[in-house]
Amino acid sequence: MTALLSSLRQICGAAQVLTHEDPATDLSPWELDWRKRIRGRALAVVRPGSTAEVAAVVKACAAAGTAIVPQGGNTGLVVGGVPDDTGTQIVLSLGRMQAVRAIDPANLTITVEAGCVLQNLQAAAEAAGFLFPLSLGAEGSCTIGGNLGTNAGGTQVLRYGNTRELCLGLEVVTAQGEVWHGLTGLRKDNTGYDLRNLMIGSEGTLGVITAATMKLYPQPAAQLTAWAAVPSMQAAVDLLGLAHQRLGPGLTGFEVMGQFALSLVDKHYPQLRVPLWQQTPWCVLLENSDSENEAHARAQFESLLEAAMEAGCVTDAVVAENLSQARGLWHIRESITLAQAEEGLNIKHDISIPVSRIPAFVAETDALLAQHIPGVRMVDFGHLGDGNLHYNVQAPAGADGPAFLRDFEDQVNTLVFDQVKRFDGSISAEHGVGELKVGKLPNYKDPTALAMMRAVKQALDPHNIMNPGRVLRP
Ligand code: FAD
Ligand code: 2HG
Ligand code: ZN
Question: Do β-strands 377-383 and 89-93 pair in parallel, antiparallel, or remain unpaired?
Answer without folding.
Answer: unpaired
